[in-house]
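User: Show me a protein chain along with its predicted structure.
Assistant: Here is one chain, sequence first, then structure tokens.
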Amino acid sequence: MVWLYPLFLWALLALLIPIIIHLFNFRRYKKIAFTNVRFLKQINQQTKSGNQLKKYLILGSRLLALTFLVFAFAQPVITNKNNQLNAKKQLVSIVLDNSYSMNNIGEEGPLLEASKNRARAIINASANNNEFNIITANVDESLLHNTNKQTALENLDKIKISAGSKSFSQLLSVQQRLLAKSELIKSSYIISDFQKNNPITITQSDRSVKQTLVKINAENAENISIDTCYFSSPILQVGQPIGIEVWVSNKTSKDIEGLTLDLKIDNKPKGIASYNIKAFGKEKQVINFVLEVGGNHQCVLQLPGDNMAFDDQLYFSINLKNNFKVLNISDDDRYIQAIFNAQKGFTYVPMKSGNIQFSEFQNASLICLQGASTLSTGAVTELNKYAKDGGNVFVFPNANLPFGGLQNLASVFGFQIAENETPFLSKVSSFDREHPIFNQVFEKIPKNPDLPSVSNYFPINSPAGITIFKLPNGNSYLQDITAGKGHLFICASALTNEFTNFQNHALFVPILLKAAMLNNFKNEIYYQCGQTDGIETDLKYQKENNIQFKMGKFNYSPEVINTNGNITLNTNGEIETAGNYTLSSSASDSTLSAISFNYNRNESDCRTFNETEMQKKADEMGAELFTKSAEKLASEISVAQKGSPMWKWCIILVLLFLLIEILLIRFLNPNAKIAA
């Protein structure tokens, strides 16, 4: 126990005053003479010993009353062994969870408000000279600086639910870095609902830091969410069926039947799906639709609302081409021309191998090399650049040239091809059914499909290539070689009847069509709110792009980065509202593309650690666990920092001893009765 104001203890010298009064104010007794005591029937004889007992009891009660009155002014405090009693300035660091799960409702209302109330209690209960910093789930840099008490309270009022939530491991790493910079006594508080899908996996490296986990409980932690969606096929075409696969999760303790999900495209209903999902399970359904026109389409998937509305909608965008440009470098283009020349939605551009116009490469969806003569170094360089920027190249060797005329191409794209063809009378034995080029080609794949026949081929090999068609001897017949963002498809046979019947086979047309459309959707169909990663686009970079994100009245100009001639957008995590946005040029006010953002689904599973699990986690971290109200938290912090004040008990004892004194004076009678 210590005294906050020990100088008041000098007032104990005042106890000498009542002692002196009681010791030296002796009472004199008078003798009264009676002529005849026999006439008295009874007298009251005051005994000296009884009067002294009463006097000492009154003296004791007065002394004790004065003593505890002095103690009350000196303010005694009971402290723990490690209490500093504000002897030194402290740094208080608060990790405040403002992720979307904190929108749930608890006993005190929204969990975020309950968390802020506890943060206020921590700050108010701390000493006035302490410093504070606050680390939010989105790591708001404006709150990371050490501030005084008043500024910290003002900063708390600014905190809102944020889309860009980090893991606890990341947040605690930030906190440890900030604490390590300070020489003050340090305290750490982590305020959250502590979801199971975001466990604390880091311990405090500085054991001198007092760490407290403050858990906020929600009344209802159940939720239904749209997790993700993606196209069944990467090949999307105007007027053709498009399938969107949607995963929905049931994060409740009950099975759900007949849950409906709606699809709207450009604000018009386009499809519906029904789900039956087991408790804490998830289910996938496919919604098929057709787009009659190309261009930019903004889409949204919608579930019925629940207590966590942020994941009941999923936005995505479709940027659909109306036309695909196909170049064919060949001296004999009859087969490729037959596919694309009259095909709706395609523009066919033939070129001679001796007169290649490189300027046409820029907007091409596919470049075919059909038995071309040996390519020059410049042509190979331009093809490599085209592929790395996301283009697709489909190659058929020349039957009359060594290496099929592809030796320059092989050295640049990293594959090997034999100098001479190999006779081989057989059929393709197998194919990669999962390759994107076969998506939606087959309604049903037969057990023994009819595959192309081979008479001659140039053996090809690429360590990084994916075999699409395989021969019975294990060699590749058709390979997909990744080149930057694009692909090089190379066939081992020339398109002549002496080599193969591939050009007359039923798979020839769909494979070439799919190759032309394969990279139409290089961009993601949606991005996450608050993300800091760059967003790659196929928009061409110009010095004055003036790109803007627009949604309703919201306008935002991102950082524009030149990436190999294309635009990469850096939003710096400042897109925090989910929805369908347009990319526009402020110079021409024209819409360049559609782009969508959604909230992070990590917060959808609201199941939290129970108190037993949290206590185990706190013990592992060497931390304390607190689960009570903000008022209780303030009281505990006050006791921990300032000790347990005893002045109120002193006042109670003062009143008690004064009452005892009054009772002694009024009711204690030391007189004795004797008979005459």
